[in-house]
Amino acid sequence: MARRRSARRTSPHWFSSLLVGVAAGLGLAAVGLWMSHSRIVPVPRTAVAPAGPHPAAPQRRTPPLVPRAPAPPRTAQARPETQSVPAPQPPASAPQPGPAPAPATGRVRVAVIFDDAGYSLAAAREVMALGRPVTISVLPHLPFSTAIAEEAAARGVQVILHLPVQPLDPTIPLGPGVVTVDMSDTAIDDTVRADLATVPTAVGANNHEGSRGTADARVMRDVIGVIKARRLFFVDSLTSPRSVAARVAREMGVPTGTRAVFLDNENTDAYVRKQFHELMRIAARNGDAIAIGHVGKVTAGVLRSMLPEFDEAGIQLVTVSQLVR
User: Does an H or E element contain 153, and which?
Assistant: First the structure.
């Protein structure tokens, strides 16, 4: 009797537990079925990623029931950073717009004649060592006249005769081989030929002094006659505004040119540099110009220091034979 009473007391508790379990299972099944149909995804409860050395990026799932509009193609929309980028620039070496460039080398030309060679071989060699086309003018019958003429020609330096011609000032010493206005035609002819013999590599001539003799048309016709016979050229040093030397030479069909600038009337660096700038200005205006300086002065050294300036200006140094016409 005692056992039956105990069993009856405990049976309701067992039955109740069974009912609760069945109800819970049915509830979970119903919830799962409802969620699968509605496709509701629970939103993460924490908007801030948990602290830690390697926080995981939150994964977001977009409900397919609300489709997102497709993003426009990237090429159809300019990137903000490209809107402010300037247009491509040419390489640094490409020419940029600006003032007209200096004339190309060879378009503007200058010829520099170094007069009075013959007294010193060392002074003449300073000119020979310039390494640019220049012309050395050698006085006749001096101790180093022939030696300078031959060495200069061998080194590629143009040589001409520096012909002494009578000046207005009778006190100016001219040395041997001078042509004077009181000479006969034959004497002038002989003098010029003898002068050329001591400068055997001369391809032309210019006058040394001559403010009186170059103004005498007869004297100059005699001088130019010998020059023409030797097929040389003549440069008028223009020691007098009354000179007829260039005109007579042209009339006789001899190539000629006229001095534009004397470089070293004052033997100072500043003065000679100023005269070279004047030469450059005249050459740029006219296309070419002839200058006369002297061996044994500062002129060769100043020219050497100014060679980059000539190059930058597009002015070419040439032999004087290239400027006669």
Answer: helix 145-154
Q: Provide the pLDDT confidence category of residue 18 given band limits of 50, 70 and 90.
A: low
| Among candidate residues 238, 151, 147, 153, the one with its CA nearest the CA of residue 204 | 153
Chain-centre distance for alpha carbon 97: 16
How far is 167 from 102, CA to CA, in rounded Å? 41
Chain segment 266-297, per-residue pLDDT in tens: 999 999 999 999 999 999 999 999 999 999 99
| Distance separating alpha carbons of residues 20 and 23, to the nearest angstrom | 5
What whole-number distance in Å separates Cα of residue 104 and Cα of residue 288?
13
Residue with tokens 């977001």: 60
162 by Cβ neighbours in 10 Å (0-12 / 13-18 / 19+) ranks as: buried
CATH architecture of 108-322: Alpha-Beta Barrel (3.20)
Spatial separation of the C-alpha atoms in residues 137 and 128, rounded to whole Å: 12
- Tell me which amino acid residue 107 is: R
- Give strand ranges (E) for the chain: 108-117, 135-138, 158-165, 204-209, 233-236, 256-258, 261-262, 288-294, 315-318
Residues 6 or more apart whose CB falls under 8 angstroms from that of 127 comprise 114, 117, 134, 136, 152, 157, 295, 300
> How far is residue 108's CA from residue 313's CA, in Å, rounded to a whole number?
9
Which residue ranges make up each domain of the chain? 108-322
Structure tokens belonging to residue 165: 């011609």
**Of 322, 306, 229, whose CA–CA distance to 263 is shortest?**
306
E strands of 270-314, at which residues?
A: 288-294
